[in-house]
Amino acid sequence: MKQKRAYHNLTSLIMRQTIKTLLSFVALQTMCFLAVNATVYTGKCGENATYKLDTETGQLKITGTGETASGDSDPYTNYSNQIKSVVIGEGITKLHDGAFYGFRYIETVKLPGSLVTIGENAFYSNGNLQEITLPANVTTIGSRAFLGCSKLRSITIPEGVTTLNPNLLAGCSSLESVTIPSTVTIIGERALENCTSLTTIELPNSLKEIGDYALSNCKGLTNVTIPEGVTYLGRDVFYACSSLNSVTLPTSLTTINIYLFQDCVSLTEVNIHDGVTLIGAGAFMDSGITAIKIPASVKEIGERAFSGCKNLSSVTIPNTVTAFGNSVFYNCI
After folding, report:
1. In this model, does residue 114 exceed pLDDT 60?
2. What is the pTM of this model?
């Protein structure tokens, strides 16, 4: 009996020691795993700029002065899938082209008051970025800077910016609000293309030019007033804006450009003022226009300008029109 008890006690002791050893091993492995996967990386990212990336928190912090690094490769690019937040320190004045190109896990960005320039493609396709505050000193935002930021809900462009560069906010499908300052004179081509959640936009009186496809496929946009002073509306600016039902054109505009309102199926009426001399090809093609009165100033109507306008029931054309394109009213039943 004593031998059995001793044997039992010995067995229990061995099991306890084995369990302790296993637990110690697991703890050691866990610590090693964390040590490997919770690393702090540091380095230079500009002549006078350095970065620090903490992979445990996912925060990338850039400090220093002047511009961040330029070139095809950035020192923290290899860790882009671990970066969730970006903090740029005071003293940095420029983010270089492609600074965070394709960093799809970034959720928050804090920019310094010292920032003046945001380079091209800086936040291109940051698909998880929901909001960003642009500092008041920013005067230049490069082309495609926020292209494809599909979760970005609102943005305010600072006073001092004069141009919304091409494709600046294209594909920001969740964008509901964009504030454009009184200093902007040009909205570049495709600047707001495919911003499908945008329902309204207020354009500043300083505006002179709106580029090709600038607001195309903004399916939620319902009304737009083009301010006086705008002399150029590019082609297809409102292409496929299917909810657009009200547009006010300025008297400073002399050309209704090609395919300007194509596929604007909710648009039933547009007042073409005296002073317009050309209605371009396909300008109102497949739109919801029900009536149109061409002013005496118009000299030319391009081909298929009103083709496919199946609701068109009233047309007034003056004898001053001397050039009439093919199939202007084709398939208007």
Report:
1. yes
2. 0.87
Q: What are phi and psi of 31, to 5 degrees?
A: -65, -40
Residues 6+ apart with CB under 8 A from 6: none
Half-sphere exposure for 130 (CA within 13 Å, toward CB): 4
Beta bridge partners of 85: 59, 108
Helix and strand element counts for the chain (H, E): 1, 23
- Please tell me whether residue 315 adopts helix, strand or coil conformation: strand
Any idea how long the chain is? Answer: 333
Question: Does residue 169 contact residue 194 with C-beta atoms inside 8 Å?
Answer: no
d(CA 71, CA 227): 40
Q: Which residue's entry shows tokens 């637990």? A: 23
138-195 pLDDT, tens per residue?
Answer: 999 999 999 999 999 999 999 999 999 999 999 999 999 999 999 999 999 999 999 9
Question: d(Cα 236, Cα 234) in Å, to the nearest integer?
Answer: 7
Asked if residues 279 and 257 have their Cβ atoms less than 8 Å apart, the reply is: no
| Secondary-structure breakdown of the chain: helix, strand, coil percentages, each rounded to the nearest 5 | 15, 20, 65
Angle made by CA atoms 139, 204, 260, in degrees to the nearest 5: 110
Give the chain's end-to-end CA distance (angstroms, integer): 108
Kindly report, residue by residue over 290-318, the tens digit of the pLDDT.
999 999 999 999 999 999 999 999 999 99
Q: What is the pLDDT of residue 135?
A: 98
Q: At residue 126, does pLDDT exceed 60? A: yes
* b/e code 216-232 from CB counts within 10 Å (16+ = b): bbbbbbeebebeebbee
